[in-house]
Amino acid sequence: MGVDFSRRSALREQYEEEGYVIIKNFFGSQLILDVRAELAKLVDQQADSLLASGKITNALPNEPFETRLYRLYENCLDSAPIVFRRELHLPSLFGYFFNSDLLDIVEAILGPEIRLYPNYSVRPKMPEWEGTLVWWHQDGGYTRYWDHSDEPVETPDVENLRMLNLWSPLVPAREENGCMQFVPGTHRLGVVAHVKRKYYLEIVDPKFTPLFEQAVSIELDPGDMVLFSNLLFHQGLPNRTKAIRWNIDWRYQDATQSTLRRDQGHLARSASRPADVVRSAEQWSKHSFG
Ligand SMILES: O=C(O)CCC(=O)C(=O)O
């Protein structure tokens, strides 16, 4: 495909203005099928362990990808996985995380030294469960207050992180099944205070809450993606359907900076350390989370 220089500049301008930019039809249908097939194997493993623990008696092998994990856990949603992370060193995900057309766009925004930040997830957003309700927040809020421990820890320098978030659905994401919402332009506000909720952080300062009325729903189809700032106010709506809203989200960072974490991520582009760049699906599947 390839994204030419003037298109990359236009995307960058829109990203800087609004704090996000949507790109439709970016990932191909075969890649999406491959990812879904590999994730279906993770769901098989979940079914096996539920069977082994006696929590279910039927592994529902014929249930579709869109519903199986939910049906497996519907009587014990509290123990359902909220995200997959360590499991994501799957060959197909190389096609998302290290996609060279995507990295060209990322390079236009972050510069030539790029790492995949050590925070990449697949979220099976379940119907009707508070554990998958992501309140209004900035990702920078997590980096500052609550990223690598159970308790909030104040981390300085978050505003200076040159970081870019990506989100792409594996099923159509609509308001009804819990698509994300953004408040355009809020990436200019710096990192604001967040409070800790049971599962997530939330922005509750009345100085900022009127901004939520300007929320835009980010409805996307598989293959589409949205790039957004780690400072943009965003939330995930409740999933009011009976199916799972599966998505992938991941982040890139200027690799010359500190991750502000113990984990160092994985190099995606580098002129200074070319030997450390992840170059193939096979290599990716041999690495581990971190
Ligand atoms: O997927 C969602 O509903 C929310 C995801 C999110 O907040 C993020 O990717 O930063």
Describe the structure.
The protein has 290 residues and is of the alpha+beta class. Helix 1 (5-18) crosses helix 5. The chain has helices spanning 5-18, 29-52, 68-73, 94-97, 100-110, 139-145, 281-286; strands at 20-23, 114-116, 121-125, 134-137, 163-169, 180-182, 195-196, 201-202, 216-218, 225-229, 234-236, 245-254, 266-269. The two termini are 30 Å apart. The radius of gyration is 19 Å and the shape is globular. Strands 1, 2, 3, 5, 10, 12 and 13 form a seven-stranded antiparallel sheet that branches. It has a single domain (5-28, 83-286), classed as Sandwich (Jelly Rolls). It contains seven helices and 13 strands. It binds 2-oxoglutaric acid (AKG). 2-oxoglutaric acid binds next to strand 3, strand 5, strand 11 and strand 12.
The value of Rg in angstroms is 19 Å
**Poorly predicted runs of 5 or more residues:** none
Instruction: Let me know the CATH homologous superfamily.
Output: q2cbj1_9rhob like domain
State the order of secondary-structure elements, H for helix, E for strand: HEHHHHEEEHEEEEEEEEEH
Bound molecules: 2-oxoglutaric acid
**For the record, what CATH class applies?**
Mainly Beta
Strand content: 15-25%
User: What structural class do you assign from the helix and strand content?
Assistant: alpha+beta
CATH topology: Jelly Rolls
CATH architecture: Sandwich
Give the % helix.
10-25%
- Let me know the largest β-sheet: 7 strands, antiparallel
The mean pLDDT is 93
In DSSP terms (H or I, runs of 4 or more residues), the helix count works out at 7
Shape: globular
Count of extended strands: 13
Q: What is the number of domains? A: 1
Amino- and carboxy-terminal Cα gap: 30 Å
